[in-house]
């Protein structure tokens, strides 16, 4: 019997060992391949997000652009109203899902949401979104809460404070200031003034949630005190571009085009539209002291309404009551700056505040029953009944050294004035 060489036998044994080790062959000697190892468990899953929008009132308007969804602060992905978006290959474990792009008139109960992804499974994340009539009765104001003047909004009871603009805390010669807000008639936009370097002032506009900040004027001088026309198509404002040091009233389209000067005598400021858009209130010192005037919306027929030997007067953008019958103004005619109200023909003047400090009239509530104003006594915003009684704090809990010309949104409906309020300073 002939035997194979020992070297060949050893080589076969080595090959068998390799095959056995690499492929898990049988019992090590029979050359039969065994079953494969079971695959390892997957380490990824899926997050499925859906939005479900509902309107509290028929007047609620949903943002047609929808929202965005962010997982763990990474790149946002768009999601439609009542839509869905899926994130695949998400590592198993805990994650944070955020719904961004909510309008100021919309809310969702829990945002962000903490979610646990199980390997090989899908985690469902619903965002029920409720919207109501746009920003009705919400107050926009400027304050230096962080040491720089920025734009904020807050509910009429001081709740739900939101900062809309972000200003660097340093600048030359000073940080820019965002001041003098004015709500658009539909409650979706806010016009305001940005002050750069103490002198340069321009009109800007942004969405009510702080997005879409757009510059409308570029005079490099002083453009300030914006006020929307009742139909939202135009904005009146003051500017000294024609005569540096002396303000005039201008009007422009809501996109900044078509800027036209309406006054040409004296120092004219603080335009305020009549509810029907036919006339504009303003103050002027053309007759030696600041008094309240009225003119047609095209600048014709300028007529003085107040005439008090001791009274320097000023007004704000929401000076006219919603029904157009009364107007707010400030005056020092009784020794200190106080809030007054009178009929639109200049008659029936009544004093509403008497705190021996300086109070600025600001805005009427949408239903005409309450009035916003500020005071140097505390630097805060207050609300009072149209007859000067029932004074309540609006900006309690909001710090800072003062609030400039707050404005109340008239989107629709009436302002809510809850019983909860902070103490009122003594008179």
Describe the overall structure.
This protein is mainly beta and 427 residues long. 4% of the residues lie in helices and 41% in strands. Strand 10 (150-154) and strand 11 form a beta hairpin. The N and C termini lie far apart (127 Å).
Globally, the shape reads elongated
- Spans of at least 5 consecutive residues whose pLDDT stays below 50 are 1-29, 412-427
Radius of gyration: 33 Å
Q: What proportion of the residues form beta strands (DSSP E)?
A: 35-45%
Query: Would you tell me the overall average pLDDT?
Result: 80
Topology:
Blueprint: H1 6-23, E1 44-55, E2 67-71, E3 77-79, E4 84-91, E5 93-100, E6 106-107, E7 113-117, E8 122-131, E9 139-143, E10 150-154, E11 162-163, E12 177-183, E13 189-196, E14 200-207, E15 214-215, E16 223-228, E17 234-243, E18 246-253, E19 260-261, E20 268-273, E21 279-284, E22 291-296, E23 303-304, E24 313-314, E25 326-331, E26 338-343, E27 350-351, E28 359-364, E29 370-375, E30 381-385, E31 392-393, E32 403-408
Parallel strand pairs: 1-8
Antiparallel strand pairs: 1-4, 2-3, 2-5, 5-7, 6-8, 9-10, 9-32, 10-11, 12-13, 13-14, 14-15, 16-17, 17-18, 18-19, 20-21, 21-22, 22-23, 24-25, 25-26, 26-27, 28-29, 29-30, 30-31
In short:
With 427 residues, the protein is mainly beta. The chain contains one helix and 32 strands. The chain has one helix at residues 6-23, and strands at 44-55, 67-71, 77-79, 84-91, 93-100, 106-107, 113-117, 122-131, 139-143, 150-154, 162-163, 177-183, 189-196, 200-207, 214-215, 223-228, 234-243, 246-253, 260-261, 268-273, 279-284, 291-296, 303-304, 313-314, 326-331, 338-343, 350-351, 359-364, 370-375, 381-385, 392-393, 403-408.
């Amino acid at each position: 019997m002939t035997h194979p060489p020992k070297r060949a036998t050893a080589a076969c044994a080595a090959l068998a060992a390799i095959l056995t080790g690499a492929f898990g062959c049988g019992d090590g000697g029979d050359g039969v391949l065994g079953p494969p190892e079971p695959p390892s468990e997957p380490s990824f899953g899926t997050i499925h997000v859906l939005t479900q929008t509902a309107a509290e009132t028929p007047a609620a308007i949903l943002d047609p652009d929808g929202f965005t969804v962010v997982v763990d602060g990474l790149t946002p992905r768009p999601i439609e109203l009542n839509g869905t978006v899926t994130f695949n290959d998400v590592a198993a474990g805990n994650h944070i899902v955020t719904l961004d792009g909510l309008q100021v008139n919309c809310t969702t109960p829990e945002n962000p949401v903490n979610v646990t992804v199980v390997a090989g499974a899908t985690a469902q994340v619903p965002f029920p979104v409720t919207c109501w009539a746009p920003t009705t009765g919400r107050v926009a104001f400027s304050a230096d809460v962080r040491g720089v003047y920025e734009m904020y909004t807050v509910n009429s009871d001081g709740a739900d404070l939101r900062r809309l603009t972000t200003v660097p805390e340093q600048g030359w010669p000073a940080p820019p200031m965002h001041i003098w807000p004015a709500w658009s008639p539909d409650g979706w936009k806010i016009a305001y003034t940005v002050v750069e370097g103490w002198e340069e002032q321009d009109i800007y506009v942004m969405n009510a949630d702080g997005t879409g900040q757009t510059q409308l004027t570029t005079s490099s001088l002083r453009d300030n005190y914006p006020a929307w026309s009742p139909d939202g198509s135009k904005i009146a404002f003051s500017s000294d571009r024609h005569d540096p040091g002396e303000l005039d009233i201008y009007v422009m389209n809501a996109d900044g085009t078509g800027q036209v000067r309406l006054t040409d005598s004296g120092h004219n400021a603080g335009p305020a539209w009549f509810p029907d858009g036919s006339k504009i209130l303003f103050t002027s010192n053309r007759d030696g002291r600041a008094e309240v005037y009225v003119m047609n919306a095209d600048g014709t027929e300028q007529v003085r309404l107040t005439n008090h030997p001791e009274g320097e007067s000023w007004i704000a953008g929401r000076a006219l009551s919603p029904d157009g019958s009364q107007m707010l103004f400030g005056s020092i005619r009784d020794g200190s700056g106080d809030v007054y109200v009178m009929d639109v023909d200049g008659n029936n003047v009544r004093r509403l505040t008497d705190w021996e400090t300086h109070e600025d009239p600001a805005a009427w509530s949408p239903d005409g029953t309450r009035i916003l104003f500020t005071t140097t006594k505390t630097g805060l915003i207050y609300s009072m009944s149209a007859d000067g009684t029932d004074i309540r704090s609006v900006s309690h809990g909001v710090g800072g050294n003062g609030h400039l010309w707050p404005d109340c949104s008239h989107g629709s409906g009436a302002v809510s004035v809850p019983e909860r309020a902070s103490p009122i300073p003594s008179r």
